[in-house]
Amino acid sequence: MAHLDPEQLGAALSALAPGRLIDLRGTTVTSDLLSRVLDAAGRRPGRMRLDRARFTGDVRLSGVTFAGDVSLDGARFDRLASFFGARFEGNVSLAGVRFTRELSFHGVTARGHVSLDRAVMSRDALFSQAVFGHGLSCERARFDGYATFDGARLGDGAAFRGARFGRTLSFRKVSGHAGFEAAHFAADAYLSATGRLSAARARADGLLDVAAARCGVDLRHLEVRGPTTVRLTDSQADLEGAVLRGPATVMGRGRSTLTSLRQVDAASLELFGLDLSACRFAGLAHPAGVRVKECTFALTPRGVRVSMRWPMVRWFSRRRVLADERTLHGRAGDPGDPGASPDRLAALYAGLRPSDSATSADFAFAAMEMRRQAGHGWWLSVSWLLCGYGMRMGRAAVWLALVMALMAAAVAWSSASHAGHRPGTVGPALHP
Questions:
Q1: Closest among 330, 329, 319, 332 to 363, alpha carbons compared
Q2: Which helix (H) or strand (E) holds 350?
Q3: Where are the beta strands (DSSP E) in 285-340?
Q4: What residue ranges are annotated as transmembrane (predicted)?
Q5: Model's pTM, two decimal places?
Q6: Burial (CB count within 10 angstroms: exposed 0-12, middle 13-18, buried 19+), residue 416
Q7: φ/ψ bin of 162: left (φ > 0), alpha (ψ from -120 to 50), beta (otherwise)
Q8: Reduced to 3 states, what is the DSSP secondary structure of residue 287?
Q9: Which residues contact 336 (CB under 8 A, 6 or more apart)?
Q10: Contact 83, 107 (CB under 8 A)
Q11: Segment 81-91, tens digit of pLDDT
Q12: Domain residue spans of the chain
């Protein structure tokens, strides 16, 4: 259509009707030509094929309803591309598209699947309040400007695998699943979702703020150079292998669980209000940098046990322990886990810093217990047996009472024995 004279163009446009196919592949499309094509189709075109098209002017599609699938693969937008308020009844493919100026998908409704794989957005990209009925794919896409998805509804979920965000990303109050696996956040990133959220193997050069409600959060092997904040509400998070170079905080509300801190490298990490009863700590690089406040841990069973090892009779009081210790004893997980050795657990217990005195005392006891199980001196076994490493004074009182009872019994037995062997006395003889 770009090469037709006015009379021929008029004839071509008169052949268009609402719902009809429009094929402008490889065409240079001006703002005027696009407006005339859409008006001729009653602003309700059917299937549109715009692959490799070049849009030289502003593109404004407010109020347009696309009744069929739309394909823009490899297209180029030289100026503003605004789909604000547009409606797509089918699928939309924008794979490999280059947006030289701003892109607006604000308020767009797409009943099908939308693909922006390998697309390049050189300026700001707005996707707030958009509705994607069958999901959004932005794999290996490049967002060079500010990007916002606030309030978007993702339907079947969104995939940003390998995407790069050059400036701030705002992904707040988003409903649906979202995956940022191996993504690169060159600036601050704010991630929030009500569905499953994954940033596994992602890299963030600035601040990373993650908020999740009633879902799972996968942050395995995440690397963050700036501050990290993870807020969980009735959610579950996994940070195994994460590298957090800045100060990091993980806080929970309701029934929020942290499942793994294995191999985590974090010089400053604060855990607040979390269920850590199943959390694995093996391989934690800086246990002394972890501060624990108002968290719950697994509990050991209490009672008396009889075994063939010395001492044959053992009594146990309930105490807070790491899930790794339960694994060490073969009650959960893989007993052969090399990260759950007594020496490593002793270092973990000694390094962690719970805020409450009861948990601190239990961890100090556990550190000595792990050293004893590792065979660091016979005196540890004696100390455990007599007074629980100086932290079970009730045990020392029992031993003292037992010794006193034995001494009293010995004295009583000795006194009775001497009384039984004492010679009888004979009084003086009386003569009449």
A1: 319
A2: helix 342-351
A3: 290-293, 298-299, 303-306, 313-316, 320-321
A4: 396-416
A5: 0.81
A6: exposed
A7: left
A8: helix
A9: none
A10: no
A11: 999 989 999 99
A12: 16-294, 303-378
